[in-house]
Amino acid sequence: MLDRQSESFRRLVDLLLGAKIAIALRAMAEHRLADKLGTGPMPVEALAHQTGLAPEPLRRVLRALAQYGVFRERSDGSFENSNLSEYMRVDVSPSLRDAILYLNHDMSLRAWLQLDRSLKDGQSHFVEINGAPIFELFAKDKQLGDYFAQCMINLHGAEVAKIAAGYSFGQFRSLIDVGGGQGHIIAAILSVHRELKGMLFDIEPNAALARDVLRGRGLAERCEVLGGDIFVEIPRGFDAYLLKSVLHNWNDARATAILRQCRNAMAGDSRLLVVEEAVVPGRAVGNPHRLIDLEMLVHFGGKERTEPEYARLMSDAGFALACVTPVNESYFSVIEGIPL
Predict the structure, then answer these.
(1) CA–CA separation, 238 vs 5, rounded Å?
(2) Within the chain, where are the H helices?
(3) Rounded-to-integer distance, Cα 228 and Cα 265, Å
(4) Which of 15-19, 33-37, 159-163 has the highest mean pLDDT?
(5) Own/partner pairs for 310-317, CB < 8 Å, 24+ apart?
(6) Nearest to 201 by CA among 167, 174, 235
């Protein structure tokens, strides 16, 4: 007979309630409870008045989350922030508020409810359920796009500096960041490797944001920004073609199509630099990347890949995998391809 009081039993109970905990976190993040508690403890009645919520249900949600270390209930019935809920504040860095709101947004939850179908057919049903691809939804809903952008910065922002310093980008004269989003990775690379000139290439909504980021970092003169479609044509003439966290968004066929466009644009002595996690079976990564892998499945039909899987993608697109360089103190690697 298994023990209902065992740590393993209680741990699994916590995990099976995880979706409910996440939705409760979302509600508290939407109403900025952690910000309101930023100056110290408050009675529930005052919190309810400030948020327009009903006192008794609010008390119950805060009390439930306090059971898991998020917020803290005092003996007088008031609540205060805990070490965990401090990360839900808007005015701290890094903040997880945007991650809570993005990862538990209705469009994401709807896609996750199709996981059983994805398990059977290996496909994403996001577009079918939500009516449009996720980046089109960002274009229509600026707040959703902002949640996504800040989520990525706060979850992965520490990796950017490690990547920029952890690979010899300075060996190249020019580098294009293909699908470079808002420009944070190429900005970091150019800041470390000051002789390097760059270009960021992405769809126009992202390109517009990247121009602001690069201008704000004083890099506009060294980095051109061009809007376009990576599946149609990629600019020519660069020593290195960087794809950072791009291929994992796509299934093998679409990822190969992106690599072929890169190959079409590249000279024989150019280099392909794919920055992703190279999955090693059985090795833990010490972060939530295994669940991010499932985000790729349900949102895009994409996946994290092993080194042999990247080698096959590259071979199908006209490259040979030359080497894999792990980035120090990071789960990312630079997976280098040579044009054939």
Answers:
(1) 61
(2) 7-16, 18-30, 33-36, 44-51, 55-66, 97-103, 106-112, 115-121, 126-130, 134-140, 142-165, 184-192, 204-216, 252-265, 289-300, 307-317
(3) 14
(4) 33-37
(5) 310/247, 310/274, 310/276, 310/278, 310/335, 313/247, 313/252, 313/255, 313/256, 313/259, 314/259, 314/272, 316/256, 316/259, 317/256, 317/259, 317/260, 317/262, 317/263
(6) 235
Centre a 10 Å sphere on the Cβ of residue 93 and count the other Cβ atoms it contains. 10
- Are residues 170 and 273 both part of a single domain? yes
- Identify the residue whose tokens are 């071979």: 315
Residue 49 annotated to the active site:
no
**231 contacts 250 by C-beta, under 8 angstroms:** no
Q: Are 256 and 231 in contact (CB under 8 A)?
A: no
226 with 311, same domain?
A: yes
pLDDT digits (tens, 9 = 90+) for 100-123: 999 999 999 999 999 999 999 999
pLDDT of res. 284: 77
What is the domain extent for residue 187?
A: 158-339
For residue 211, tell me if it sits in a domain: yes
CA–CA gap between residue 22 and residue 13 (Å, rounded): 14
The catalytic position among 193, 248, 289, 299 is 248
Mean pLDDT for 223-229 is 96
Q: What is the pLDDT of residue 245?
A: 94
Q: What's the pTM value of the predicted model, to 2 decimals?
A: 0.89
Average pLDDT over the chain, rounded to whole? 94
Q: Is residue 108 part of a domain?
A: no
Q: Does 211 lie in the same domain as 67?
A: no
Tens of pLDDT, residue by residue over 245-270, are 999 999 999 999 999 999 999 999 99
